[in-house]
Write a structure and sequence with these properties.
The protein contains 21 helices and 23 strands. It is an alpha/beta fold and 552 residues long. The radius of gyration is 35 Å and the shape is elongated.
């Protein structure tokens, strides 16, 4: 007996030495529940640093987990009172740590491996969660959703996708600072988390944009939850310098079955469309796109347009047209407005009215504008000035000036040959960044024209704010100038103000000789319209055509 005891003691010492080198907690439990082997790391990870591993040898394993009754009960029930061969208890919180517990049945007894995964969990959390709101980030949200789609878990379930956008968030950041904006986003995230179910997915997918996925949930139930969220967010009151900050959200909703897709982007695209409709309906509400609505069909048509635009840009099959802008007095002093058309594979030429609204809706106008500008530079002829339209998304883009600078490094051309046209609506989108870009580009030698002037209430105010060179009078006033004295006086007033500021004027929609004579008579500098020139491919407009009807 003494010899066997001695051998067993020696083996235990050897085993203890081996276990002591392992960075995980190791516990070997006999079939009768007593601990046969254990290392000190087990005590440390389990929050028992004052205990010695040897104190637990040959006693029931329950004493080791006495302060962790849920783990003790799980091991007891699954490994000793059932036929299970394994048990995994991931991310168990113990004394401020995240611990992973794995149990495996051996030939004799049970092996328990205890691992401190606090740092791993922290790294994973940082990779999968938004740092500000501590909810899922877009990438992880998409991964989780696509995983459920691939596993066919959603095939026979009602599931709802929602896109949530904070109303007027940029104004809040501009007025009260980004720290207030951050507090607002955190408050919104907290409200949504408190209202949804644990099985639902929730993520921040953009600056002020969130996505929700309700699995195994009817449209009626999802609508109830979202309406509650909207009302709760409407009641938020944050304070900054004695001022109350309030906000609302607009939400777009669609069903998973409606989308009939295996991609996250397709679902979000439909919900985003619904969200934009909600904003157009007055904000602080939700809009649902269902299978019976014409909106879903329109959405599909819009998405097809985006595919066609992107294909045309890739194949460089967008073509440039031009329309002369004639001086009303001096022949040869005219210039060309550049217009873009989309040419289909069958040779059909598509008007910009068909695809530009979709490009603006899906924020790809800068791609079209950049394409047009580069093509103008490549095709331009000496001594001809080209007027190029810019979208609000482009002129307010912080990278636009960099694009122009790189273009100057690649091609040899004079900035004085290009005038950029922007509208009042464009300018209002982001007045600060727009103004900054205009000033920077004017320093480089480019000119600017304010298009559709007169349609906004703040038209004359923008003349004081924006350093433009030319004003294009909206055709709404020009087209009936010969028969409507009010229109005539409005156009004349615009000309007088522009002239006093040293700005040139252009009258649009000059469709006949009488209109031309009228705008010429009140000293409008330039005229544009079908009477003077119908748009044609830019490549066909040469120097010989410039100024043909300037004195008509």
């Amino acid at each position: 007996m003494d010899s066997n005891y001695s051998q067993e003691s020696t083996l235990r010492q050897i085993l203890s030495g081996i276990l002591g080198t392992i960075p995980y907690g190791i516990v070997c439990i006999a079939d009768n529940g007593s601990i046969e082997a254990i290392n000190q790391k087990s005590c440390d990870i389990l929050g028992l640093p004052d205990k010695q591993a040897k104190d637990f040898l040959d006693i029931d394993f329950g004493f080791l987990f006495e302060h962790l009754k849920s783990i003790k009960n799980d091991i007891n029930e699954n490994m000793f009172h059932s036929s299970k061969n394994m048990l995994d208890l991931p991310e168990v919180p113990i004394s401020g740590k995240s611990v992973d517990v794995k149990c495996r049945r051996m030939l004799r007894g049970v092996l328990v491996v205890i691992r401190d995964i606090t740092q791993e969990s922290l790294l994973i959390h940082r990779a999968t969660h938004d740092s500000l709101t501590q909810i899922y980030n877009r990438q992880h949200f998409e991964e989780l959703l696509c995983e459920r789609i691939r596993s066919h878990e959603l095939d026979h379930r009602d599931s709802i996708f929602a896109f949530l956008d904070v109303d007027n968030f940029k104004s809040i950041n501009d007025k009260y600072g980004h720290s207030c904006g951050d507090d607002l986003l955190k408050e919104i995230a907290s409200i949504v988390k408190s209202r949804i179910r644990t099985s639902d997915l929730f993520a921040r997918i953009g600056g002020d944009e969130f996505a929700l996925f309700f699995e195994n949930c009817s449209l009626t139930r999802a609508e109830e939850i979202i309406q509650g969220i909207i009302r709760k967010i409407e009641g938020i009151e944050l304070y900054s310098k004695d001022k109350v900050i309030r906000t609302t959200v607009s939400v777009g909703v669609t069903s998973f079955k409606l989308c009939e897709t295996d991609t996250f982007s397709s679902m979000m695209s439909v919900a985003d469309t619904a969200c934009q409709i909600a904003k157009n309906e007055g904000r602080n509400t939700l809009h649902i796109i269902d299978g019976n609505s014409c909106e879903f069909k329109e959405h599909l048509e819009n998405v097809q347009w985006i595919d066609e635009i992107e294909y045309a840009l890739k194949k460089r099959s967008m073509i440039l047209y031009g329309q002369l802008i004639q001086h009303t007095e001096f022949a040869g002093a005219s210039y060309i407005e550049v217009l873009v058309r989309l040419e289909r594979a069958n040779g059909e030429i598509i008007s910009p009215a068909a695809f530009i609204p979709q490009a603006e809706r899906y924020h790809i106008m800068p791609l079209i504008d950049y394409y047009v500008i580069e093509e103008v530079v490549k095709q331009m002829q000496n001594d001809i000035v080209y007027s190029v339209n810019l979208s609000g998304q482009t002129i307010s883009n912080t990278s636009f000036v960099d694009f122009i600078t790189k273009l100057q490094e690649t091609y040899v051309f004079s900035p004085s040959q290009i005038t950029f046209e922007i509208t009042e609506t464009t300018a209002m989108m982001s007045i600060d960044s727009t103004l900054q870009n205009i000033v920077a580009l004017k320093k480089l030698g480019f000119s600017f024209s304010l298009d559709d002037f007169g349609t906004g209430l703040a038209s004359f105010n923008y003349l004081k704010t924006l350093p433009v060179d030319t004003v294009k009078i909206d055709g709404l006033f020009v087209r009936d100038i010969t028969s409507n004295q009010v229109s005539l006086q409005i156009v004349k007033s615009i000309c007088d103000v522009a002239r006093s500021m040293g700005l040139k004027t252009v009258a649009e929609f000059v469709t006949d000789k009488a209109t031309f004579e009228s705008v010429k008579g009140i000293k409008v500098d330039y005229a544009q319209g079908f009477y003077l020139h119908k748009p044609e491919p830019l490549s066909l407009i040469g120097k010989k055509t410039v100024g043909v009807k300037a004195t008509a």
